[in-house]
């Protein structure tokens, strides 16, 4: 009984068990024994599914979740689940904006330590990943993998790579190929129970569900505006940065949004998808068609299209108050779209 109490008291104030190899200390003898397996490379805990062995039982326990698919650690903000607590901690930094790893050279901060290590190579010039065929070196493993799969040396893809039979794209993991294949098959196994919309990937469904539960975990650091989806924030940030990643191949003009580039391309192609059903005249922009319809007296002052109209168009014409003698509205079709109009 006394020895049990003595052992327990050590837990609070001392670490009497020291590793002879690295001098690390432990409160309990069992922890020291488990730690020493790192040095001896003894791995007594083996996975019954794939045979992989581990020095510690905790390592085996975490590994088994790969086979069971168990993800017990859930993000309280967006609901995304993880198999390890460490993964949840790193993920949560997306919402908190915490970046604890700072580059001593330039002061840039990162949410993950491995990203800092990769970044530091831009200062040191270190390129640890070398091609055994031609000697070209890379700062990141992904760069070396792309180089190898590029077929520059006439080599076939490395054993273990998974190739899409439809488009030829290769993946290092079978899960990556499986997710990618759904693009071609149209298989959308993840369905929203709220509205029925389906997705090819689970993480896309989780992001979508934020629309229904009104959670907006992605906040702009510049102005504080919040978004339910990461893509929404990415698009919004371009207002502050002035970034215009979508460039017209014809004239070089750049745009912040893909939808704006699509509209602009009609200038070169002379495509005019918005046609007036009254006189047949067609326009490149929806706003121009709305202005034209007023000439026929077939458009309400609100100038609003139906809910079924394609998104991404210009803002509607500002609404003006109706006169008491304004005739009742009727529906007018323009190129398959229904508008409120006057009789």
From TrEMBL:
Chief location: nucleus
SUPFAM superfamilies per the UniProt record, alphabetical: beta-beta-alpha zinc fingers
Keywords, alphabetical: DNA-binding, Metal-binding, Nucleus, Repeat, Transcription, Transcription regulation, Zinc, Zinc-finger
UniProt-annotated location(s): Nucleus
GO MF annotations in UniProt: sequence-specific double-stranded DNA binding; zinc ion binding
Residue intervals of the C2H2-type domain: 17-44, 45-72, 73-100, 101-128, 129-158, 162-189, 190-217, 218-245, 246-273, 274-301
Ranges of biased composition (kind: Pro residues): 311-325
Sequence segments annotated as region (Disordered): 298-343
Biased composition (Basic and acidic residues): 326-343
GO CC entries: nucleus
Similarity comment: Belongs to the krueppel C2H2-type zinc-finger protein family.
Protein name, as recorded: Zinc finger protein 16-like
Organism: Panthera pardus
């Amino acid at each position: 009984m006394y020895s049990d109490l003595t052992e327990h008291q050590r837990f609070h104030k001392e670490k009497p068990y020291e590793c002879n190899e690295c001098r690390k200390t432990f409160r309990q003898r069992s922890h020291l024994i488990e730690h020493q397996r790192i040095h001896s490379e003894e791995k007594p805990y083996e996975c019954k599914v794939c045979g992989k062995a581990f020095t510690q039982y905790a390592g085996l326990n975490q590994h088994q979740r790969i086979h069971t698919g168990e993800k017990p650690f859930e993000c309280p903000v967006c609901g995304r689940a993880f198999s390890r607590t460490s993964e949840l901690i790193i993920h949560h930094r997306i919402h908190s904006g915490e970046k604890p790893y700072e580059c001593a050279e330039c002061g840039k901060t990162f949410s993950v330590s491995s990203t800092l290590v990769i970044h530091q190579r831009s200062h040191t010039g270190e390129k640890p990943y070398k091609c055994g065929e031609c000697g070209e070196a890379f700062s990141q493993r992904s760069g070396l993998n792309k180089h190898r799969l590029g077929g520059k040396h006439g080599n076939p893809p490395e054993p273990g790579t998974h190739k899409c039979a439809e488009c030829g794209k290769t993946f290092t993991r079978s899960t990556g190929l499986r997710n990618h294949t759904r693009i071609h098959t149209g298989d959308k196994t993840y369905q929203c129970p709220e509205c029925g919309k389906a997705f090819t990937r689970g993480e896309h469904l989780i992001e979508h569900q934020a629309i229904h539960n009104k959670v907006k975990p992605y906040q702009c650091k510049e102005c504080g505006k919040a978004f339910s989806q990461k893509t929404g924030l990415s698009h919004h940030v371009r207002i502050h940065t002035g970034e215009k990643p979508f460039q017209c191949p014809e004239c070089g003009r750049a745009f912040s949004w893909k939808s704006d580039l699509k509209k602009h391309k009609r200038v070169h192609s002379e495509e005019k998808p918005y046609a007036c059903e009254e006189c047949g005249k067609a326009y490149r922009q929806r706003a121009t068609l709305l202005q034209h319809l007023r000439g026929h007296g077939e458009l309400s002052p609100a100038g609003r299209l139906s809910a079924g109209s394609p998104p991404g168009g210009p803002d509607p014409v500002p609404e003006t108050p109706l006169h008491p003698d304004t005739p009742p509205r009727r529906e007018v079709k323009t190129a398959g779209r229904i508008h409120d109009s006057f009789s």
